[in-house]
Amino acid sequence: MKLVEEWGDGSGCKLYENSKYQDDRGFFEVLYNKDQLKGFGIEFIQINQSHSVIKGTLRGLHFQTRPNEQGKLVRCVRGTLFDVAVDLRKGSPTYLEATSIVLSEDDDYHFWIPRGFAHGFLTLEEDTRIEYLVDGNYSVEDEGSVIWSDPAFSIKWPIAPSVLSDKDQSARNWRDLESEISFILGEHRT
What structural domains and CATH numbers belong to the chain? Predict the structure, then answer.
């Protein structure tokens, strides 16, 4: 795995490309190497998978607060998706900026989303599956959602969402949530 691109000042999102070994039989790929990821400063405790049947399914923008924030290493294992991360770390030079990328089963990309970011994705094909490794435990008490269309983030979604959960439809703008939250998400590190 090698670093392909990074956004912000080095403490933000990063794009890694995996090495794939191909021959006439197919391919071999190492998906998880603890020592290699530890060298990137990433350690995981759980692997999640999400399958969306319908094109245009939107999931997010979700985040977790202290003490249960989560960093995520995301990849698309089937179909194509538009993946988005929004920096919610107060004091960060990229505060409220969105980073987005199209991930596909045809590429070998892994998208790193640090703690303190909201995350969401929109499926661009039917039967799209996403897999992500997380570095923190899930906590329903520390979970939050921001509306996908929040104007503060200026996200340019490639298609209009057609399927959203009740939770995602009823999420609010960050400016409304921010005033109710008594913590600071993440720590900006230079």
Answer: 2-19+36-178 (2.60.120.10)
62 flagged as catalytic: yes
- Please name the residues in contact with 104: beta carbons below 8 A apart, sequence gap of 6 or more: 76, 79, 80, 81
CA gap 86, 100 in Å, rounded = 9
Catalytic residue among 62, 110, 119, 138: 62
Is 51 an annotated catalytic residue? no
pLDDT tens-digit profile, the chain (190 residues): 888 888 877 788 888 888 888 889 988 877 777 788 788 778 888 899 999 999 999 999 999 988 889 999 999 999 999 999 999 988 889 999 999 999 999 998 999 999 999 999 999 999 999 999 999 988 888 899 999 999 999 999 999 999 999 999 999 999 888 876 644 455 444 4
3-class DSSP state for residue 176? helix
pTM as predicted: 0.87
Which of the following is catalytic: 109, 119, 132, 188?
132
| Residue from 4, 82, 76, 86 nearest 40 by CA | 4
The CA-CA-CA angle for residues 78, 107, 9, to 5°, reads: 115
